[in-house]
Structures are given as structure tokens and as C-alpha cells.
Design goal:
This protein has helices at 2-5, 9-22, 30-34, 36-40, 47-64, 66-73, 92-103, 120-137, 144-147, 153-174, 187-198, 203-220, 233-253, 275-281, 284-288, 340-355, 359-372, 375-391, 395-405, 410-422, 428-431, 434-437, 445-458, 461-474, 479-488; strands at 261-267, 295-297, 308-314, 320-324, 329-332. It is mainly α.
Length: 492
């Protein structure tokens, strides 16, 4: 904006390109740059040039951005692009009202909003800084005779709206959850609009207005909407505290971890706390232990060639369980551990062991686990072992394991098989052996339809698309498959 105001067109364009490459949301600033000359009242406004130049830059950026390409390929539906997608128009009115209210520090939960008492001392300090700053600035305040030389209120309002409206529209239309902190972007425009109202106000009125605005802003930080997916500050604070608790529990179980170890971490559902993404995507253990050679993976994606394998389970209560899969032993920060929190990680780990080449060990682990499980869980363990045997063309061994697993109703077999494709290994050819191990025909339209619907309802987009495509080959014109594939959008 400074470069644009100085009339340095090419440097301003280059800076905007760098901003876009740094963070996609910078695109919301483009409208004000395009209309800058008109807002500033310059006679030589070059609107056509600016529209063409900034438009070409955005097109070029979109062409090379993998996230934008994925969004277009999926018909602007979320899934491949995480929480970003042009969908659920029924939310747009509600979200727009929420964003506007939050922008002006009006809590959307009204009088029931919790005051964040832990911030009270900081509020006092902030108010002191506000009053002192305004008082110190009083002597240098622009004389009333100079105010008329500033841009008109109309032009300033245009600037404020161009800075505020596009950044408000983007999250309203494109971001699936409600994310209050995104009002940090339109806040630039809101500051300009607020300044218009205060430009002629007395010092007392200005201080009082800004003090109320500050206090209301702190109150907004106490907003909580537990009944829906909304990334409020309360959610982020809870997530921060949760991951610190997990870190403490990891250190309790393992004060140190061998250099170059592979951590296979199974994480229970923890909702908006994001424990799985922090540990796996963020590789948090390598930071906790200050060792970049540590690698964190999901158990089914175990890699070969690491010095040490360590298998962990993070429970819903955020306890950490270390599991010795070959002997089915464990130790935990919790006083008691559910058998599910032991068996599930071992079975997924065994699949990872098979996929990384050690089929014999994988079968041995699963058979030991099966001796401790009962009913469908025992059958599931043995069928996973049979998958590994089928993959290595050990037909007699596979037949023995399937026979020991016993019979299973088709629907139960499909539900069990869905766990395999829901947590795929690095070897799709191994995972595809589930059809034979669970006794499901690859040409059964009803089975493919069941799995497609199951994954669609769970929000597992790639798996739903996979079975929709398979169903479409088996039963061309199936309306359910067509709907799933239509949401997928055209592929490049």
C-alpha cells in the first residue's frame, strides 16, 4: 500500500505477489490496491492497467497453487482442501453476521459470554497504555485547521470498506467452520472506519470509546460454542493446554528417546484439540525432545530402516500408553487402560509391519493379539493376518487363518473391512487383499454401495470417491455414485 501510494506501480505489484505467495488471504487486499489512485483522488488514475496487471498476477498465482487447483478440481467443495470450500450456503447469513459482530467486538453469545478472568490484569495494563498513549499524543494532535487537508470522509470510508468487505466475504463463503480470529484481516478496514468517527472527537470521548472497544474485545475472547465446530479462542486455548499435557505424559513415559527412532503414534479422536495433526503433521515429538532425527508416523504407515520402533497410543483422556506389540505388554500414565486402546494400535502397527516387508512378524503379532480378543475382534485380527499371507501368496497359510477366523455376516465383514481402507497402509496392493480375507466380492454392487455411503457419511472423501468409481463401473448410472463423483468435480 505504501509503494502504491508512492506511485511505484511495479514494486507494489511485486510486493503483492510476494504477499500472495506468503499467505493466500492477501488476495483480499487486491481490490484496494486496484482502486488506490481513485481513492487518493489522483487525476491520472489508471484503472484499466491496474485491473489487467493484478488480474493477470492472480490468474498466474492460481495456476501454480496446488490448493487452488485442488479446490477447482473438486468443484470448490472442501475435502481435498481441508476446511476450505464453497459450500453450505445456508450458513453464509449466520456467519456473515457473526464476523461483522466480532469485527466490532460484539460477542455473538451475548450476555452469557464468559469473561476471561485470567486476562483481567492484562486488561488493566492495556487500558493504562491506552490512556497514557492518548494523553501523550494530545500535544501533537493534528490541529483542526489541518484536518480539512486530510482525505474526505467519503474517500476514507471507501478505503475502509474495501479493506474490510473482501476479507469478510472470503471466510464467510469459503471457510467451513466459523473462525473468529480471521477478523484480524478486515480489522484494518474497521480501524479506518472507526477513525472517521473519532477524527473530530474530544480526547475524553476518544479515550472512552477506545476503552469500551478494548474491554469488549477481551470479552469476545471468552466466546464458546461447544455445540458446533467453531475455532474460538477458548477452543485454541484448550488445544494448547491439551498438547502440553500430552507432551508431559510422553516425557513421563519416556524421559528420553533413542536418536533416530521411529514413533508410531495412534491417537484417539480428540476433536478440535488437533492432537493427531500436531504429533503427526507437525512432528511435535522431534521438538519436544530436541531431536530432528525422530520421525512420528501413524502405525499403519510404519517405515523400514529405523533404528528403533516405539509404539504409542494417546487416549481420549490424553493419557499416553507405550505398547510392546510382540508381547502385548504396555505401560501408561493412566491407572487403567481400555483393551481397545491396546489392541487397536497393535493391529494397525502389524499392518504397517507387513507393508514394510516383514510379513512373518506381522502375522505372529496378529495371531498373539487374536488369542486375547473375542468375537468379531478376534476374527478381525486373523483376517488382517490372512491379508498379509494373501499378499505374499502364502495360500495355505491364508486359508488356515480365514478358517480360524470363522464366519462373519456380510454387513459385519464390510464394517470391519472399512477400517482397513479407512486407515490405508503405504501398499494399496496389500490393502486390496481385504476383499478376499473378509469374503467380499470386488464385483458386488451392494457391497460397494455400502462402503461408498459409509465413507461419505464419515467425511472420508477419497475413500467415498474410490468406491463410487468402482460402483459406477459395476452398475453404470447408479445415482448415489454419480452424486459422489459429481461433488468430486473434473480431474486434470
Amino acid at each position: 500500500m505504501l509503494l502504491c501510494d508512492a506511485g511505484l506501480f511495479v514494486p507494489a505489484l511485486a510486493a503483492t505477489a510476494c504477499a500472495l505467495l506468503s499467505k493466500e488471504s492477501a488476495i483480499a487486499m487486491v481490490p484496494v490496491l486496484v482502486f488506490w489512485d481513485a481513492i487518493a483522488g489522483r487525476r491520472a488514475a489508471r484503472l484499466a492497467r491496474d485491473l489487467l496487471a493484478y488480474g493477470c498476477m492472480i490468474v498466474a498465482w492460481a495456476a501454480i497453487h496446488p490448493g487452488v487447483r485442488a479446490l477447482v478440481a473438486h468443484g470448490f467443495q472442501s475435502g481435498a482442501t481441508g476446511y476450505v470450500g464453497l459450500e453450505h450456503p445456508e450458513r453464509w447469513a449466520r456467519y456473515s453476521l457473526r464476523y461483522v459482530a466480532t469485527l466490532w467486538n460484539v460477542p455473538v453469545t451475548g450476555v452469557s459470554t464468559r469473561w476471561p478472568s485470567e486476562l483481567t490484569p492484562w486488561v488493566g495494563a492495556a487500558l493504562a497504555v491506552l490512556v497514557a498513549g492518548m494523553a501523550l499524543g494530545r500535544g501533537t494532535r493534528t490541529a483542526s485547521s489541518d484536518i480539512t487537508s486530510l482525505p474526505s470522509a467519503r474517500r476514507l470510508a471507501t478505503l475502509g470498506l474495501l479493506l474490510a468487505v473482501p476479507p469478510l466475504l472470503l471466510p464467510t463463503l469459503l471457510v467451513r467452520p466459523w473462525v473468529p480470529y480471521l477478523v484480524a484481516l478486515p480489522a484494518l478496514g474497521a480501524s479506518v472506519l472507526l477513525a472517521i468517527g473519532l477524527r473530530r472527537a474530544s480526547l475524553g470521548v476518544a479515550v472512552l470509546t477506545l476503552a469500551v472497544f478494548l474491554v469488549m474485545g477481551v470479552l469476545c475472547r471468552g466466546i464458546s460454542l461447544p455445540g458446533e465446530l467453531a475455532w474460538t479462542e477458548a477452543v485454541l486455548v484448550d488445544a494448547s493446554q491439551a498438547i502440553h499435557r500430552v507432551e508431559r505424559n510422553f516425557r513421563t513415559i519416556h524421559p528420553s528417546i533413542p536418536h533416530g527412532a521411529q514413533l508410531l503414534v495412534s491417537v484417539a479422536a480428540t476433536g478440535t484439540r488437533g492432537i493427531n495433526s500436531t504429533i503427526i503433521d507437525g512432528q511435535a515429538p522431534s521438538i519436544w525432545y530436541d531431536d530432528p532425527t525422530l520421525k512420528s508416523m501413524r502405525p499403519e504407515l510404519r517405515g523400514a530402516g529405523f533404528r528403533t520402533d516405539l509404539l504409542f497410543r494417546v487416549t481420549q483422556e490424553l493419557d499416553v500408553v507405550e505398547i510392546e506389540p510382540d508381547q502385548t505388554l504396555y505401560r501408561s500414565t493412566a491407572s487403567s487402560v481400555s483393551p481397545f486402546d491396546i489392541g487397536r494400535p497393535i493391529s494397525t502397527y502389524a499392518r504397517g509391519v507387513a507393508a514394510s516387508g516383514d510379513v512373518v512378524r506381522s502375522i505372529r503379532i496378529l495371531e498373539r493379539l487374536a488369542r486375547q480378543d473375542q468375537g468379531d475382534l478376534r476374527s478381525y485380527d486373523l483376517r488382517l493376518a490372512a491379508m498379509a499371507a494373501i499378499w505374499k501368496e502364502q495360500r495355505a497359510e491364508a486359508a488356515r487363518l480365514v478358517a480360524e477366523a470363522g464366519s462373519m455376516p456380510r454387513e459385519a465383514a464390510l464394517e470391519q473391512m472399512a477400517k482397513v481402507f479407512g486407515e490405508p497402509t503405504a501398499r494399496p496392493d496389500l490393502d486390496s487383499c481385504a476383499y478376499q480375507a473378509f469374503g467380499i466380492s470386488t464385483e458386488g454392487a451392494e457391497s460397494m454401495r455400502f462402503l461408498m455411503r459409509l465413507y461419505r457419511d464419515m467425511g472420508y472423501v477419497p475413500q467415498a470417491e474410490h468406491f463410487a468409481a468402482r460402483l459406477q463401473r459395476i452398475a453404470p448410472g447408479d445415482p448415489g455414485a454419480a452424486e459422489v463423483l459429481r461433488a468430486k468435480g473434473p480431474r486434470r
